[in-house]
Amino acid sequence: MDLNSSPPNSNSNTAIPVVSTFSSPFENPASVQDGPNGSTRKPISLWPGMYQSPVTNALWEARSKIFERFFLDPPKDAPPQSELLNKTPAQSRTTILYNFSSDYILREQYRDPWNEVRIGKLLEDLDALAGTISVKHCSDDDCTTRPLLLVTASVDKIVLKKPISVDIDLNIVGAVIWVGRSSIEIQLEVTQSSKEGSDNSDSVALSANFIFVARDSKTGKAAPVNRISPETEREKLLFEEAEARNNLRKRKRGGGDKREFENGEVNRLETLLAEGRIFCDMPALADRDSILLRDTRLENSLICQPQQRNIHGRIFGGFLMHRAFELAFSTAYAFAGLVPYFLEVDHVDFLRPVDVGDFLRFKSCVLYTEVNPDQPLINIEVVAHVTRPELRSSEVSNTFYFTFTVRPEAKAKKNGFRILNVVPATEEEARHIVDRMDSQALLSTRGFGK
């Protein structure tokens, strides 16, 4: 059939109508009941979620029900919460189920090329679930007080313990495990049984710890949050471990772990720099099993769009992690020449908020490698910069550290496979590598993030 057979001005062309899912909230912003045409009017706070995954959308809708009174009918000069409550971890515990085995559309939205779950999309959901749990803990169920503004401050660590299939149902369960004055730590576990209906004790496929901070929604200042009362032995142990992590973070911020590069540290720097100088000064004589750090770099950029915002109007933290992961994966792929396999995300700090319209640049590099024949490790750094060309300024918003290996089945097919050593060309790069190696070793010896 010739689709262009009708003349340009013919009336036989049929226009295909496009119908929006939700009616405009501006037509009657005070109402969330059925409209005159039977459509449900959503408060504006719920709109951003429809651009995210269906899981993130569901989590944001659940979270927004607590905030609904504030967005639809904000009380005049509503006071803050007057009395802090004592809550248990069980009161914030939330579970979300992915029906991959029966929901074809959901399964296809999360499938990667290797029939596993897309880690980047899962990172978005983890951030959304952690935010919903923090709101549940901080809610005082009092419609006369103004709700808190809760934002992602950092991610302690995300560790993948086994592959996550996209064909088997998946659960994510999380709860608040520790509370400071204005900060909250949430632990999340992704569980998936190896077989449908089995109850394996090793079903935890991924674990993550998120730290949120509370701000007064009117003044923007740090606000106190409800206390927590661990009940079970496991809850008490998790609280103690989180308390230790919090103390370590405080020491790092205060410079307590800052080291002077003297004696042996200088020797480590010189060893790292020695091969880099050969690459720069005598490239023909450089070690063919090494590569300069700067030659592993990749970069991408974007303008932050309204569809990427969260319910508070800022760019969704899970979206930033998703984009950083995709770039890190590509960097590891281009470096190794084989499909990488994700292992973990190290501690992430959200240093400054990202707004709609911001010019965001992601820069990645292979920071260092660990040449282990059984499981070679590729450590990727991704730095997100908020760039403002009008002001000639660029600020770091986030720094992410991802660890990958290569898929065993891919490595087995490539005879003579090897991972190159990464060497710095400048003293600044060498210091940065040593800092990261030592930070990783410190967390491992103290048992954090396991």
Throw out a few tags for this protein.
450 residues, alpha+beta, Thiol Ester Dehydrase, Chain A
Could you characterize the architecture of this molecule?
- The chain has 2 domains: 16-21 and 47-250, Roll (Thiol Ester Dehydrase, Chain A), CATH 3.10.129; 263-447, Roll (Thiol Ester Dehydrase, Chain A).
- It has 9 helices and 15 strands.
- The protein has helices at 54-72, 89-92, 104-110, 119-138, 233-253, 264-281, 317-336, 408-413, 427-445, and strands at residues 86-87, 94-98, 148-160, 170-179, 183-191, 204-216, 227-228, 290-292, 298-303, 340-345, 348-350, 359-370, 377-388, 393-406, 421-423.
- Strands 2, 3, 4, 5, 6, 9, 10, 11, 12, 13 and 14 form an 11-stranded antiparallel beta sheet that branches. A two-stranded parallel sheet has the order 1-7. Strands 8-15 form a two-stranded parallel sheet.
- The chain is globular.
- 34% of the residues are buried.
Concise structural overview:
The protein has helices at 54-72, 89-92, 104-110, 119-138, 233-253, 264-281, 317-336, 408-413, 427-445; strands at 86-87, 94-98, 148-160, 170-179, 183-191, 204-216, 227-228, 290-292, 298-303, 340-345, 348-350, 359-370, 377-388, 393-406, 421-423.
